[in-house]
Amino acid sequence: MTNEELVQACFERMGGRDNVTAATNCMTRLRIHVADDSKIDDEGLKNVEGVLGIVHDKPGYIEIVIGPGKCRKCADICAAMGIPVSAESGGGTSVDGDWQANKAAMKAGQKQGKIKGMLKTFGEIFVPLIPGVIAAGLCSGFATLLTQLVPGYAEDTFWGVVYNLLTLINQAFMTYITAWAGYRAAERFGGTPILGGMLGMITSLSGIDAISQLVGLYNDAQPLDAILRAGRGGVLAVIIGVWFMVKIEKAIRSKMPDNIDIVFTPLLTLIVTVIPYVFIVMPATGFISTGLVWIVQQVAMSANPIVRVIAGYISALLFLPMVAMGMHHGLVALYTVQLETFGYVTLYPALAMAGAGQVGAAIAIYLKAKKVGNQRICSVIDGALPAGILGVGEPLIYGVTLPMGKPFITAGLGAGFGGAFVMVMQVASTTWGPSGVLAFPVMTASPVNDPVMSMVFYGIGLVLSYAGGFIITNLFVKPEEVAAA
Known about the structure:
Helix content is 66%, strand content 5%. Helix 4 packs across helix 18, helix 8 (177-189) packs antiparallel against helix 9 (193-204) and helix 9 (193-204) crosses helix 11 (234-255). It is mainly alpha-helical. Strands 1-2-4-3 form a four-stranded antiparallel sheet.
């Protein structure tokens, strides 16, 4: 089935093209908003060829899991059909027929509490930014490797150009990350995106330093310790500020005559917003950001290796349960704040080990399934294992380990060994997003190791997680449990 046919087949089971009001994508899912939720045929969607699963846990909105790359192509097809981009991103023996129902059922049973909703909103703001995050991080990783592998790159015309091009791509995202976040936050909160982008851009401009010096909030000796400075609060400040700005914009627009709305509403919105934003939001969120970074650094980069071992083990152990509960979105805040502050992320490499533990557990279950003759489980793992090795863990989680129960736990226990190792070796990444073997190029940012050794340590961590997941699952999951799965 072509991508066009896949989109058409999905639309037919959602009440037709006219019922679809908006569409976008994340890393693995096509995210659809509909006018009439009652027209969605969940079972029909699950059975469409190419659909790996659905998440339909709130009215008027459905996520169709179709895999990385493919979901973006399908979203482009929707756009070509004139469907607006969403305001929030928000039987058998095949993999398709086994894990998607498990995931949908679990998600449908979860409560959308306030904290979880807030974390999900934060994640939705960053979903469209993920391609930029990954591209910038990969280019940073390649540039760092280049400096190690080609010592005289700066004097060589070819390698000098390559290095600067890679650096430019990285800087294009990192320099203006607050602007991108502001634009997306305004879209998500229902405001004017360009105003959100402008507020985000203001956060990083040098004029903030000039204002800080004029009012006596700048620290000339230690600029990074200033109560107010350019970049203070980062994306946390931007998201809170844009939320506040959208409230103001809507209030002003409701009172503004139509004929002067386009002139005075954006002007007054920014003027009213920028004063409390610069003098209250930025300093306040600056203290929060500093505290978050300090906590993560004290744990992930502690001078005490025992602390790092424990932190790495627990991080890898708990990450997949967080994913299963939808709580992992909040980690984006930690990643972003640390990346803005230091240029690297120390927590993500340990968390990336969680998927490797699932791979090891799946291999152990596969061998037991072959012995007891459970061909269904063998088929599921056959289809899901390559994706798991590449870093796409959902088919293994929802098709194998989570439904069986015990392997989900043993996989996490095994992953902890890899998490402990990469954290004790102080592996750091240039971005977040890629995991499994696809993450090697971004594991180059360690502040204490050269890029090549950082990648080697990451690889050792993967092997430890594979082995840990395999051994612990093999010890504690009995053949009769696999036979009954």
